Amino acid sequence: MRSSLNRGRRVAVLLATALSLGWLGNNAALAACATVADPGTLTGAFAQQVEVEEARAAGLSLTYSDNPLFAADVMSGKLKPVAERLPEQPLIVLPYDSCGTYGGTIEGTSRAPTSGTSDILSWRQAVLVRISDDLKTIVPNVARSWKWNDDYTAITFELRKGHKWSDGEPFTADDVVFFFEDIIENKDLSPETTAEWGVNVHAKALDPTHVEVSFDEPDPGLLTYMATSGSYFSTFAPAHFFKKFMPRYNPNADADAKAAGFDDWKKWFQNYYQKWHDDGTVTAAALEVPTLEAHVVELVPDTQQRVFKANPYYFRVDSSGQQLPYIDRVHERFLTADLQVLAILNGEVDFKAQGNELSSYPTLKDNETKGNYVVSLPAGSIGTSFAFNITHADPKLRAVYSDLRFRQAVSHAINREEMNQVLYFGLGSPSQALPADLSFATPENQTYLTEYDVAKAGALLDDMGMKAGADGMRTFPDGAPFTILWEYSSQFAGPEFVKLMSDYLKAIGLNVNAKEVTSEASRDNAKAATSDINMEWDVPYEPTLIADVGLYVPYYSDISPLFGVKWKQWYNTAGKEGEEPPAWATRMFDLAKEWKTVLPGSARYVEIGKELIKLNQENMTLIGTIGALPKPVITGSKLRNVKADLGTVHFNFGYLYPFRADQWYKN
To answer: Within the chain, which residue ranges are assigned CATH 3.10.105.10?
Structure first.
C-alpha cells in the first residue's frame, strides 16, 4: 500500500513539474496520467474527478492540450487556443484506464431519428449534475457545486467561470434563468409546467456563476431526476440564440417568423428548441443551435444518419490536461432491428446497448471474433410490461379494457415460466410489473396475480359477458365480434414477445391482430388514445422514481402515455378540463404530489411508496411478465476506457452517461 502511494506521489510531482514547464509531450503525459485504476494522490471530494483547486492541492498544475482536429482553425484565427476556449475552472476527470489519444470515429446505430437514440445521446450529453457509476452518488458536472436551503424549496448552483457555448459565447446563470422563466414558465410554450419541475418554479441569477432555482413546495428529488432520467434534458438554454424568436425580446418576432416561413413565433422557436434534445438534432436547424455537449451536429441530418463533431469548447479535460472528448466524430446510422444486428456482426458498430434483445445474445456471442467486438451482460433490462388503454377513445373498447376483471384475466393467462425459458433462456423470473430494485417492495408484490390459470382467466371473462363463439373467440358483452388491435413498436417489444403473448390471449378466447408500427406511430396513437395496448413504460428504478414519480401514476409517460391523460388534465385544472378520474386514480395523483415533497428514505416516503404499489396492483394498471434480466452490450475491440464491469445500463440511469463516454478513445 505504502509503495503504491509513494509511486502515486512521484507520478503526480513529475507530471506537475513537466506540465507546468510545458515541455511534456503527449506520449509522456499518457504514461504518467492519473486514472481510476491508478489515481495516485489525485483525489477530490467526488470519486473519478477533481476540481482545479483540488488538483493544485495535489501538486498538479495543468498545461492544456488541444485536439489536432482544431489545429487549422486555431492557426487561421477562427478558433482561439484551447486554454482560452476552456472554462477557467474546467472539470478534470480521471479516465478509467489511460489518458487517451485523439482521433477516430465512434460508429453507432439507432432505429430512426426519433427512435432508440437515447444510447447515443448519452455519449455526449451535458447537464448540471451527473450520477456516478455507482448509480447512487450525484456529482458535479456543468455545475461545480450546489447548496439547498433548509426546507428543500430552493437550490443554488455554482457554474464554471468562463464556460462557453459551442459557438464561443459565454454560458452564465442567465441561461439557466432563461430556461425556467422563458420556456418552462412560459404558458405560450409550456401550457402545463412539466411534472419534474412541480408548479411555480422560478430562477434568479445571483451573479454570472450563481443561480438560485426555487419552488412553491419542497423538491428534494430534483438532483436525482437531473442526474438520471432527466439527463436527456438540460436545465439551461442559450439565451443569446433564442431571444430573437420571442416577442418579449424581439417585438418583430411574429413578422420575422413569417418571413422565415413559419406561422408565428412559437412555430419558429419550436423549429429550433425541443425539450428532448435529440428531437432538436433531426433537421438542419441543429447546425445553428449552440450546445454544451461533447459533440455537436456537423452535417445536415437525414433519415439515414447523423454525424457529430467534437465540441471545441467542451468543458472537461483529462488528468494530463487534454481537452475531452478524445473521439473526433460520432457517426449514427438509422437501421431496423435486423439490420442493426447484421451491422454488429459485420464489425460496423463500436458500441451498442439500447435495443439489444436478449434473444439475439447467442448469435452475437458466436460472432464476437468475426465482428471484432465483445459482448457483456450487465443488468439493465426488465421483461416487457404493457397496459390496456383504460381511457380508450372508443367507448366500447374502453368499457372492456377498463373492466378490472378483463385485466386480471389477461394476467392469469400468461405462462410466465414458459416465457422466461422461451424468450429469455431462463435468466429472468416471473414478476408482476413493478419499479425495479425498490427498497419497500415485497416478494408478494412481485408475484401478485402472476399465477398461470387459464380456467380462472376464462371465468373472469365469462363473468363480464364476453362469451366464446363457435370458433372459440370471445365477443363484446353485446355479442359483437371482439378483436384486440396490438400495434407495437420493436423498440419496446420484439415480435417474438408479441407472438407468444398473442397465443396466450387467444388461448382464453381473445382474438388479436398484431401489427408492427414505428415508435413515432405508436406514440401518436397513445397520445390520441386510439391504441388498445400501450407499451412504452421504461421501468423506473428507485432513483428515477424519487426523481419522477409520474412514471408510476397515470399517465406513466409523457412521451407515450399509457392511459389517463384526460384524468390528469382534470386533476391539474381542478375539474375545468379533461374528465374526472376514478377515486383510485385521484388518490394516486394526491400521493404523487406529496411524494415529491418528502425526503427519500423517510417513514412517510416508504408509506407513500407502499400505497402506490397497492393502488397500481389492485387496479392492474400495468401487467408484467418477467423481472430483471441482463442486457447484451456490444463493445468494439478497439474502443478504450469502457468500464470493465458496467453496472445497470438502462434508460432511467441515462444509459452510458454514468460511465463517461467522453473519455472513450480508439486504437
So the answer is: 382-618
